[in-house]
TrEMBL record:
It comes from Cricetulus griseus (Chinese hamster). One of its GO terms (molecular function) is mechanosensitive monoatomic ion channel activity. This is Transmembrane channel-like protein. Its main location: membrane. Belongs to the TMC family. Residues 395-500 form the TMC domain. InterPro entries: TMC, TMC_dom. It is found in: Membrane. It holds the Pfam family TMC. One of its GO terms (cellular component) is plasma membrane. The chain crosses the membrane at residues 65-87, 108-137, 196-216, 283-308, 328-349, 361-384, 404-426, 447-467, 504-527, 567-587.
Length: 693
């Protein structure tokens, strides 16, 4: 009876508000969707209906019709947003993986999701300003286009060569103002200069990726290296981690598994700190570690020498420019060496028997990273050093783009074979023959495979602008394959450990060895290597960089109307001081992220504590639970990192939702809901308080 009286009082109070105020208040109430729907239906004022029937039927009908149209459009938008949300491959899988396998395995799939966002962000300017324009104004065909045979999906040659997939298809023309036909670059017209667009679009895509990558890395650094965030985390996890808004049985089961796994990780980390180790054990472990590193470095040098020797043999062959399966020889050799070396490193890690699983993963990541960077360094020398001299007459840019495409495809095939057969066979051997449990998920090897594939993509953007689209398709398929293999062939780590810094480490490795190396490779190709004279947008120039210089000289001859553009090009592109300044600012943002996050956490803790004390003095029963949930969520070690585009969309959505009704609601909140006046020591500002009913 008491609950019914409270509900009736709340319904009466809601009936006295306007539609916007009523909807906003119901939306912010800590109730289930069913109760909110019941309140919205009951809050329609019978008095208003009777008045509408007596004399204001037309006005009420128009108001009701307008409100119904607004609700219909709002519902349609929610349906579209929910459809887009459901179409994402990580909609339910990430919660399931985090609950069953812990934050360590979850960090791999979060990193895969971040790479997917990076490639989508890089692909957008390439499609808008380069690929789309060239597809709308295709050049004249230079010869007979071969038919599709199916082998092009593996080799990247054949009919793919005569498409916007590769560098050689793009023309060195300037589109006219009427867009009817292209003209040569030497004529004066409204310039959509394809060489200039090619150079600046690729440069802008790399610059946007760099800014996004540094932002994501600094954000992840601030989230994972909080000062004082682990104090009392065990009590917070036990008493404050449950989300009371979860009502479905499946979701509650996933949340229960997640809390259980998180407690195991916290206890394992605490036990690892308290476990002492003898001097003999430390000496034996150091000896095994040194021997393992010697074997790993020797293996890396042997693999690099093998790749260099085999690439030289491929160049010296008379049919080095073949069209068939022989083009896959070098990618096959590199993939076999990478796969065999990764299994060797895994065996060495088993013999070393690290006490800390975190140290074991970091050690494996460092070894695999050294191997892959050494192999990629040899391949870069092979492409820009040896192949350019060998293929001066044909289009060497197309060959490099096709070679990188083949490396991506072959690496993906080996990853599929290793996931579908390697992990399956190892699981059957462990269960049937060795009488053991399922093997664990190899985080280090799989993460380095992702970084290796992304590095290949960045290396090939200049020579194949659609390579990020191929990488996106590869990542989507890889997500489903790895998830299925994880659920069927792997078990949770036998020694649970807290992956509090894994996302930061992955993004750091992606930024400095991977992205920086690809940027150096492309800068060398743009500034130093002579383009092909028979294909591509830079066929008449000595270097690709000369396209910008020629454009600046044309602007200087055109007159004083565009005199600021040559000045901008001189100080932003030709002057190296700006590049050093940008690099210093990025590094400064990287190092200051930890201190700024700690200061923000300290200031928010003081104001948040004062707010909770005041709300608790009003007698609101859910204040303790809500604050406890906030502390529990902030104390969790692993959270999905927000990329820059997702953060921008969230900001726009928040402004659209709260900006229009904020001040209107502030002036019309009932007096009973405002409560007593806040003390003068509290920070002042516009606040709307929910009536507890």
């Amino acid at each position: 009876m008491e609950e019914d009286e409270k509900r009736s009082l709340l319904v009466k109070e809601l009936q006295g508000l306007s539609m916007a105020q009523r909807d906003h208040m119901i939306r912010n109430m800590p109730l289930s969707l069913g109760e909110k729907r019941w309140l919205r239906e009951k809050s329609w004022s019978p008095k208003g209906k009777q008045q509408g029937q007596k004399g204001r039927g037309g006005t009420f009908s128009c108001s009701r019709l307008r409100y119904s149209c607004i609700l219909a459009l709002h519902s349609l938008g929610l349906v579209l947003l929910s459809g887009l949300y459901a179409a994402r491959p990580w909609r339910y899988a990430l919660k399931q993986i985090g609950g069953q396998f812990g934050s360590s395995v979850l960090s791999y799939f979060l990193f895969l999701k971040t790479l997917l966002a990076f490639n989508a962000l890089m692909l957008l300017p390439l499609l808008a300003f380069l690929v789309g324009v060239q597809a709308a104004f295709p050049p004249d065909p230079s010869g007979l286009v071969p038919t599709f045979s199916g082998l092009e999906l593996l080799t990247g040659r054949g009919c793919f060569t005569h498409t916007v997939m590769y560098y050689g298809y793009y023309s060195n023309t300037t589109l006219s103002q009427s867009c009817a036909s292209p003209r040569e670059t030497g004529q004066d017209s409204l310039p959509y200069n394809m060489p200039l667009a090619y150079l600046f679009t690729v440069g802008a895509a790399f610059f946007i990726t760099c800014i996004t990558l540094v932002y994501s890395m600094s954000h992840s650094f601030g989230e994972s290296y909080r000062v004082g965030s682990t104090k009392g985390i065990h009590a917070l996890t036990v008493f404050c981690s449950w989300d009371y808004k979860v009502t479905q049985k499946r979701a509650s089961r996933v949340q229960q598994d997640s809390i259980c796994t998180q407690l195991k990780e916290l206890l394992a980390e605490w036990q690892l700190r308290e476990r002492p180790q003898s001097a003999c054990g430390q000496l034996w472990q150091a000896a095994m570690l040194g021997l393992g590193w010697l074997l790993c470095l020797g293996t890396t040098m042997g693999c690099a020498a093998a790749v260099l020797t085999f690439s030289e043999v491929m160049i010296q062959r008379p049919d080095a420019d073949g069209q068939g399966v022989e083009l896959l020889a070098l990618p096959l050799v590199v993939s076999v060496l990478n796969l065999g070396a990764s299994y060797l490193f895994r065996g060495l890690a088993t013999l070393e028997r690290h006490d800390s699983p975190v140290l074991e993963v970091y050690m494996a990541i460092c070894r695999s990273l050294i191997l892959k960077m050494a192999v990629l360094g040899v391949l870069c020398y092979h492409w820009l050093g040896r192949r350019v001299a060998k293929l001066q007459a044909p289009c060497w840019e197309d060959f490099v783009g096709q070679e990188l495409y083949r490396f991506l495809v072959v690496d993906f095939i080996f990853t599929l074979l290793d996931s579908l057969f390697g992990e399956l066979v190892w699981r059957l051997i462990s269960e049937k023959k060795l009488k053991r449990q399922k093997p664990e998920f190899d985080i280090a090897r799989n993460v380095l495979d992702l970084i290796y594939g992304q590095t290949l993509t960045w290396l090939g953007v200049l020579f194949s602008p659609l390579l990020p689209a191929v990488q996106m398709l590869r990542l989507l398929l890889l997500f489903y394959v790895k998830k299925a293999s994880l659920m069927a062939n792997c078990q949770a780590p036998r020694r649970p450990w807290l992956a509090s810094h894994m996302s930061t480490v992955f993004l750091t490795l992606l930024c400095f060895p991977s992205f920086l190396g690809a940027a150096v490779f492309l800068c060398y190709a743009v500034w130093q290597v002579k383009p092909s004279s028979t294909c591509g947008p830079f066929r008449t120039l000595n270097t690709m960089y000369e396209a910008g210089t020629v454009w600046v000289h044309r602007l200087e001859r055109a007159g004083s109307g565009a005199s600021w553009l040559p000045w901008l090009h001189h100080f932003l592109v030709e002057n190296t001081f700006f590049l050093f300044l940008v690099s210093a600012l990025l590094l400064r943002a990287r190092t200051r992220s930890s201190s700024s996050t700690s200061f923000t956490l300290f200031t928010r803790r003081g104001s948040g504590g004062a707010d909770r004390i005041y709300l608790h003095s009003l007698g609101w029963p859910w204040v303790q639970r809500s604050s406890c949930q906030v502390l529990g969520s902030k104390a969790r070690a692993t959270r999905p990192d927000l990329p820059f585009p997702q953060l921008f969309l969230i900001l726009i959505k928040w402004v659209l939702q709260h900006g229009f009704v904020f001040w209107n609601e502030l002036a019309t909140v009932p007096a009973r809901c405002l409560g007593p006046t806040r003390p003068s020591t509290e920070p002042s500002g516009p606040r709307a308080w929910l009536c507890p009913g």
